[in-house]
Q: What sequence folds into this?
């Protein structure tokens, strides 16, 4: 079970990290964007660390206070939840 949860978290974090890079590139090209709603939902369901790392790596959404504060808070909440469940 722990392996399955770890695999899930790995996949969802890689997904959100990738989406942050893709969305940044699309923003530069004035192309169709990934919705903030999709980014938030993915962060809430476990991808917050990947989203936060993507923000740092791609310098994306760093002027949006909700993302700058929200993603790290979600990371802390996810870590606390994992520690509680273990």
A:
């Amino acid at each position: 079970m722990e392996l399955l949860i770890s695999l899930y978290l790995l996949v969802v974090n890689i997904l959100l990290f990738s989406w942050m890079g893709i969305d940044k590139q699309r923003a530069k090209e004035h192309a169709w964007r990934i919705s903030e709603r999709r980014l938030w939902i993915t962060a809430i369901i476990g991808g917050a660390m990947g989203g936060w790392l993507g923000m740092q790596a791609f310098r994306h959404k760093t002027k949006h206070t909700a993302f700058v504060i929200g993603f790290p808070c979600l990371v802390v909440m996810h870590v606390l939840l994992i520690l509680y469940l273990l």
